[in-house]
Amino acid sequence: MATTSRASLSLLRRSPPKLPNSKFFSSSQFRPSTFRKSYPCPIWSSSFSFCLPPRSTSTSSLSFRHFSSSPPSMSSAVAASAVDSAVSDESLSSNPLLQDFDFPPFDSVDAKHVRPGIRALLQQLEAELEELEKSVEPSWPKLVEPLEKLVDRLVVVWGTISHLKAVKDTPELRAAIEDVQPEKVKFQLRLGQSKPFHKAFKAIRESADWSSLSEARQRLVEAQLKEAVLTGIALDDEKREEFNKIEQELEKLSHKFSENVLDATKKFEKLITDKKEIEGLPPSALGLFAQAAVSKGHENATAESGPWIITLDAPSYLPVMQHAKNRALREEVYRAYLSRASSGDLDNTAIIDQILKLRLDKAKLLGYQNYAEVSMAVKMATTEKVAELLEKLRSASWDPAVQDMEDLKKYAKSQGAEEADSLTHWDTTFWSERLRESKYDYNEEELRPYFSLPKVMDGLFSLAKTLFGVDVEPADGLAPVWNNDVKFYRVKDSSGNPIAYFYFDPYSRPSEKRGGAWMDEVVSRSRVMARNGTSVRLPVAHMVCNQTPPVGDKPSLMTFREVETVFHEFGHALQHMLTKQDEGLVAGIRNVEWDAVELPSQFMENWCYHRDTLMSIAKHYQTGETLPEEVYKKLLAARTFRAGSFSLRQLKFASIDLELHTTYIPGGPESIYDVDQRISVKTQVVPPLPEDRFLCSFSHIFAGGYAAGYYSYKWAEVLSADAFSAFEDAGLDDIKAVKETGERFRNTVLALGGGKAPLKVFVEFRGREPSPEPLLRHNGLLAASASA
């Protein structure tokens, strides 16, 4: 995720009126939220993070034409300013970042364009900012609208190069971004600490017209006032200078952390020439390993005879942990994965310590006791409510997780495994897969032929039509793309009018693309940014996954987990694309409190277990045969398999994140690894290895937006499970009721964006405040919770 400072996109929001309290989701805990650019997904299993975060046209009726990073004359105006004597007018006028484009020119932007393009843009924006400060008035046309236009240009252009760094990384692009990043952060801070803007927003808040403003506009204003304080506007000059230095250094460290994880992941390659070493691995994995070998110069490599190359990239790593009978190989690969970015030039240990120290220094400058308080200031929750929820879920998960391990040991012993009495980290995934196969009589690898990417996408789009009344159609060729595998889609309403667009980049490319899966915005829906006589600019998103690529002449054949991941990211995209907010700064995913933003994504995952939905996507790629009914029933029964263990894993991540940002003292008697070991006593049935260095690749909290916020996955999971239970209550087999409930979900959760507080949105959809019971029920943990 691009680690943008609050100041850059202080996208204006407010706390709502109070609602009746519930135990965890008290409306009094609402805070204005910080908008971040992308939303990575949670770590699903003990062996693999599916969703590690990355970093920070013509159409019918002309309903969407341009979303420009600049007005048409911008490039010539910038050139005329002679921002850099080394850069000619001609080179600036041809710089794709400075052109007036319909869609970002992903296919033509190169590292050489970054330095001159960003510097030219920043100089132009700086000049416009100064002029705006001189003329600003406390009104929408004289403050908010010009501010949105100014911010939008930086969002689009910087978002373009940040996205390319995440999906098409090169040393040259890295270096160019690193060079201009301090200048970008400086401008963001300058914008966020603007006293004329702050004074104007305060005047709006205190005006007689305040009560006549829409709820969306009120949230926007109050959030901006809060963000300004969190960006250091109230600090004296000396402290503000210190604050700004901290922000610059944090941005730099975050990028370095992320780059080290990517480089460490790419660095590991294990060449195997003896097929006995990889016994047990399915043909799909062998084909992928052989394909990797071909890409590394082993031209004659085949799935049958090798050689094979194993990497730490997700589609390679996970099959080894699940299926390799060679225990020594599993241990080697596990240890390599566990120790990524923890040694040599790529060691993130010192970077973590410095990040934590700077975050604490920043919190104290702002008058908070710790960084978690800063984080919670812009979320639904408080540290106390989070700790209460995490402990409730931990108590419900512990005994089932202990039983999970006992079941594994018993099964391994029944199979004559020598390690049965001493199962450890590189054994649990392998034996879990064997126990799953034995208990439910299906093999995940056997499901792959039923989940080809084209069929999955067709079924997903059909579901979107049923639930939300929208059509999704291919629009390849309409927008430039960064790789030939990238697909481009148009979303239409029931009248056939385009309402949104999105890119989809599905496959793993370990040499240039970061791991995980994420959704990001390209542009938001906006009335202010509308052009060519249209009433609103349409939203555009991209979805990025790292699933198994096609091998040979076969399409991408997906694991069920990869299917869930696509549904998850599409949920994020739907909230961005189906928003009905026309105020660009609170549209879609913008201004949604961080701990509520996972609601639509996790909600969509539930449909993977819905019979009609699953059967619509589960078609054999060769025969067209539908997944057998008995296999579906086994898949459904296996949904709660090891639910306690998976829940506990997530709770560990949330707990250590919270601990590092509350009580941990950087440079104190405990190291970060001591904290990890201490937290694991209550959150990990099998204690971590003494040399466990997982934190060195915990990108969510050190290079993403989840610092003191990883709990958000569980917080939002409560919301999403309860939201799906509304469809269960209506009757999942009652198509009329499903459509009616889907329309209500679209008109609330998906439509209202950050213009209304999440708890109010939820209550408007559900008719009551959320309950954790549906989540515990879905996970098979309700009985454990009742007895805890």
TrEMBL record:
It holds the Pfam family TOP_N. Binds 1 zinc ion. Residues 118-240 form the Oligopeptidase A N-terminal domain. GO terms for cellular component: chloroplast; cytosol. The keyword Hydrolase applies. Keywords: Hydrolase, Metal-binding, Metalloprotease, Protease, Zinc. Residues 320-780 form the Peptidase M3A/M3B catalytic domain. Its cofactor is Zn(2+). It catalyses: Hydrolysis of oligopeptides, with broad specificity. Gly or Ala commonly occur as P1 or P1' residues, but more distant residues are also important, as is shown by the fact that Z-Gly-Pro-Gly-|-Gly-Pro-Ala is cleaved, but not Z-(Gly)(5). Its EC number is 3.4.24.70. GO terms for biological process: peptide metabolic process; proteolysis. It is an enzyme of class 3 (hydrolase). One of its GO terms (molecular function) is metal ion binding. Belongs to the peptidase M3 family. This is oligopeptidase A.
